[in-house]
Amino acid sequence: MRRRTSPSGFDTAGIRPWNAGIDGLAFGGDYNPEQWPDDVRLEDIELMREAGVNIVSLAIFAWATVEPREGEFDWAWLDTTMDRLHAAGIRVALATATAAAPPWLTRKHPEILPQRSDGTVLHQGSRQTYSIHHPVFRDYAVGMAERVARRYADHPALALWHVDNEIGCHNPRDWSPAAADAFRDWLRERYGDLDDLNEAWGTAFWSQRYGSFDDVLPPRDTTAFGNPTQLLDFDRFNSDALLDYYRDLRDTLREITPHVPTTTNLMAGSHKEMDYFSWADDLDVVANDNYTLAADPDRHLLLSLSADLSRGIAGGDPWILMEHSTSAVNWQSRNRAKQPGEMLRNSLAHVARGSDAVMFFQWRASKAGAEKYHSALVPHAGTDSDLWRDVVALGGAVKALGEVRGSRVVARTALVLDWPAWWACEQDVHPTQVQYPDQVLAWYKALWRLGVTVDVVPPSRDLDGYDLVVVPTLYLVSDADAARVRAAAERGATVLITYFSGIVDENDHIRLGGYPGAYRDLLGVRTEEFFPLQEGESVRVSGASLPGGGLTADLWTEKSTVTDGVEVIAAYDDGPLPGGPAITRRTVPAGGDPGTVSAAAAPVSTAGTAAAAGPGGSAGPGVPAGSAGSAAARSSTGSAWYVATRLSDEGVAHIARRVADEAGVLPSAAVPEGVEVVRRVADGVEFVFAINHTDAEVTVDAGRPAPLSDTDAALAAVVGTDLLTGEDVTSPLTIPAGGVRVVRVPV
Ligand code: GLA
Ligand code: GLA
């Protein structure tokens, strides 16, 4: 990559906290005053005070307003806005103003426009209509960031730098000539030697061998299937290049204001193209944007996943919810307004999972432009509206939760997620089309419904401290990352891996000798061939420890054998492989050598006998293996479960409960359907967030976590204070229909 400025040599210890000068949690959103006349801007400040706004993101799309013609600057309105915000005690996350280039720039330099894979040029007229790879654009962008930084370096309202906006939202992949040059530079740096590239890309296949780096193209539209590793490297390159663009601007800002923290707003949970785990170290604080999907009845679960992923990117630290919506968005096919209470639930669900901020797009609903139907804190209807009254109430709630700031969510369950594995998994010409997020979400949802709090972590994260490690469909994995999962099992954790995992290495080369290569020994399973199911086809799987009629599954089956001692929890009743193992469990000795699975491995056990015979096997239906003790209490014997098919939701729920119970993982509370309980922990105190997503009042034993199997656990009548109402409460806790309670409990 071209690096314009050196990221090294900065003393990051001197960077002040992003929320210095804010009391408690941050509350606010994107502020775009350039869309309004001055009388409205003056009213904005009054209304921000009324709602309790203490931070805004400013100047995100301000470039063309600040510099309407090249070299002609109008800063006055921005100076005034900064001063007014400061006078009102409102802090500013100030943007580099680079998220949309002014029209004069692309007219003068059409070479900076991005291109699609078929060579179509994308033109000015919306936003992010530039190639971040083009040196001319980079110069202009860095220049703009520098001007903003110099002008406001010492402004007392400046809290945080907001680099560009949702980097890669609209231009995550670019096939322009500038992108092609940058791709070749990136490949030279990654491989050094052309032979290594040829080896990694498997170019002996289809006469693709390269004699020069100059012959390499980004994977443009071509006649047949593209080279898989070229496609994968292009994904890696683009993610790295977008990060490099961030670094360029960040370094520019940092040189001028070494003490001011820098971030950019991620889109974790909804965007495939950026490997945010690899971005984390460059963000002084992780900031995320999240929008719920109006048509999805489970939209609050997807929200939770995004929040847990944000916390995972932040390495467990508190983070910033930088954007969500007060009500409808404008970009779904049917943009329904939120239900009463939904904004509050959404906002506090993010806080429950580690956000120290509640921020929105945007402050005031636009009357013109492409987002005029997008909700805001001040709606089109004005302040005589339910939405405004709800916004003011939310501001009060956020204020009341001030002491939550800085507390942390503690989880004993890890769900492993990886962007390169996602990219590789969803490529063409595979045994069938496997949608990676579906699998991640299926297991996440099952754990959510059990009340189990989950850390979403990359495969490179240390798994010490987790009793349960769930690895859904991790198609691509390095040896080192596969070893981490194995080490977790050898340390005593319960590990669960699902189909089409561990198949290829980092270069997307098959791990030979039988699937699932990287995990074959750990699981004690060896697969010879895949038998994906046809559209609409499903199978039954059954086993002695499964509920009566067994479970259903679809999409995927595989022909496997298991090693001695591996328990077949379920076998196929029907489908292409009747009698074959579908769900298995291997007891993993502490730190032991698991041996290897050879082609002459033990024949497939039948479900009935295996379930009775396997070590650590179930004592019978409904009695989960290993339910007797917590991970801490158990010996260091762990287990490795394999789910070789796509179970229905009911099947995933059953297995998730079993593995959570076996691992000794405690739910944050015994949660009724549709209720979410999450705990944030600080010194001597716990904040219990209880969110009722149903339309009926519920009661929750929020007193203390108890094992899933411990259905008779006495309700601990813990006294705490509801921070939202100030009332003292006891457990069981009543949560009104659609309501939220946040209870401070001394521990
Ligand atoms: C993103 C952008 C905002 C706005 C919202 C609309 O989050 O950052 O500028 O377009 O989407 O939902
Ligand atoms: C054709 C081609 C082969 C191979 C097969 C795959 O027959 O000639 O090179 O691609 O299809 O089915």
Polypeptide structure, described:
Belongs to the glycosyl hydrolase 42 family. This is beta-galactosidase. The chain is of the alpha/beta class and about 750 residues long. The protein is about 30% helix and about 20% strand. It has a 10-stranded mixed beta sheet with strand order 12-11-13-14-21-20-19-16-17-22, sandwiched between helices. Strands 5-4-3-2-1-9-8-7-6 form a 9-stranded parallel beta sheet. A hairpin with a 5-residue loop joins strand 26 (about 720) and strand 27 (about 730). Helix 6 (about 175-190) packs across helix 8 and helix 10 (about 340-350) runs parallel beside helix 11. It is globular. Mean pLDDT is about 90; it is low at about 1-10 and about 595-635.
